[in-house]
Amino acid sequence: MEEKKQCKGCGGALPFLIGFVAMLVVGWVVFPKVIYSQKTQPVRFSHKIHQEQGMECANCHAFRDDGSYAGLPKNEKCQECHADVVGSDPAEKVYVEQYAQKNKEVPWLVYQYQPDNVFFSHKAHESFECKECHLEVGKMDTPPVYYENRLSGYSKQTMKMWQCERCHAENGVSNACHVCHK
Amino acid sequence: MAHGATKEFKVTWGMVIDLDKCTGCGACMTACQVENNIAPMVDASNKMRTLSWMLVFELSNKKSGAEAEVAYLPRPCMQCGNPACVPVCPVVATEKNEEGGIVSQIYPRCIGCRYCMAACPYHARYFNWEDPIFPKGMEKALSPSTSARPRGVVEKCNFCHTRFMEAKDKARQEGGNPEGLADGAYMPACAEICPTGAISFGDVKNKEHKVFDLAQGKDAFRLLEKLGLNPQVYYVSKREWVRKLGDNYAATGKPGAAKKHS
Ligand code: SF4
Ligand code: SF4
Questions:
Q1: B183 within 8 A of B208, measured Cβ to Cβ
Q2: Does residue B257 sit within a domain?
Q3: Distance from residue B91's CA to the centre of ligand 2 (Å)
């Protein structure tokens, strides 16, 4: 009986409720923020300004002759225009001086990198517009923040398996494991 | 997939291996290990733990002197039409569902129970007892075609499946038909490297592919046909004793697949 009296302040519904709400906040608000580290691209590349010059996505992100996808362009491509500083944007100066002229490739962060066991064919998805799966960077002056999962190391923005599967199902495409996995 | 039924596909990737041409050189095994990122074994003499998607067996006619003969039999996964390994997997980590009929194996999904290994009569499946260790420098030469497997999962030959995907991409790029690849457009590493041309590969249902006729030749046979797993790998030998060995165990006295047992 005496012990119960002593514990009067620490039992009951109120402390439970406070703890419950606190944990909800941690689980729903704090943790999802803490789990991702935020990174910015090494160069503030403006897709927008390139699009305004009349360039298409495929001018820099192209297929190779064997149908594989080259993904991000290398210095070789960028230098076709940016061997020297041609504009007034300071970001361009950063690129030219720190990367192009030093013959160093830019370590771009790729928002959509998939795990090693995924085989994705850009060729098979050619009929879709890039922005249906990728962030619509074409309209952006500053590349979006890259969120990296601190545990898995993957980008937050990368496409999830359920998204791939849903689209395949909706379009009557096979969802057999081997269609996407290697 | 309904148990005990062979699922039909428009395209059936198959291999035809000419055992009279095979010299047992093992180039197919090497090519396979490179293509599929199979790490060198720490102790390759321990055959309980070695891992080889493609394995060359030595066959002997058990005679001596001038009559003695040997043959070599390369054994990939048979990609069975009615695989024994698929229905036993409790987590659907292996399935036969994709056009072409290649039996898939999804490593991150596999829980390592090894039911499939027990079920496969061809011993085509291997368990990773250890994490792969690539000698220094070799990790730079890993192939992007196949993901590396950790300790605790099962793996097997998949006819170099990524080459199939790449062949389809190439066909799309060139305006061809990715669902009806030309003969030779898709070749697994073993078939490509074999110096004697013993391994042929293609769509066994497509008359325009070389393997169509080869698989139906009078000297063609499959391993343990009487088990009814309907393998997609065929063997050819003019030597009768070799053909007989194709059905060598679980002998019931009744001829399997129209071939008489001695
Ligand atoms: S050979 Fe073995 S592992 Fe390959 S499909 Fe047949 S039963 Fe499965
Ligand atoms: S070892 Fe892996 S693939 Fe084989 S039956 Fe078990 S879970 Fe399935």
A1: yes
A2: no
A3: 7
On whether residue B159 sits in a domain, the answer given is: yes
Question: Which CATH number goes with the domain that contains B180?
Answer: 3.30.70.20
Q: Report if residue B252 sits inside a domain.
A: no
Output the pTM of the full model: 0.88
CA distance B166 to chain A (A): 7
**Residues pairing with A137 in the sheet:** none
Does a structural domain hold residue B219? yes
Q: Does the Cβ of B115 fall within 6 Å of ligand 2?
A: yes
Is B166 in Cβ contact with A174 (below 8 Å)? no
ipTM: 0.84
* Interchain contact, A176 vs B172, CB within 8 Å: no
Which of A126, A127, A168, A182 should one mutate to test binding to chain B, selecting the residue with the greatest count of B CBs within 10 A? A182
Helices (H), B129-230: 161-173, 189-193, 210-214
Per-residue pLDDT of chain A (182 residues; tens, 9 = 90+): 455 555 555 678 899 999 999 999 999 999 988 999 999 999 999 999 999 999 999 999 999 999 999 999 999 999 999 989 988 899 999 999 999 999 999 999 999 999 999 999 999 999 999 999 999 998 999 999 999 999 999 999 999 999 999 999 999 999 999 999 99
Search chain B and give the residue with CA nearest A122: B169
Q: How far apart are CA B250 and CA B262, in angstroms?
A: 13
Number of domains in chain B: 1
d(CA B98, CA B79): 12
Question: Which residue lies with its CA nearest to atom 6 of ligand 2?
Answer: B113
Q: Which domain covers residue B228, as residue numbers?
A: 13-244
pLDDT band at B256 (very low <50, low <70, confident <90, very high): very low
**Cβ-defined contact of A174 to B97 (cutoff 8 Å):** yes
Task: Compute chain A's Rg from CA coordinates.
Answer: 24
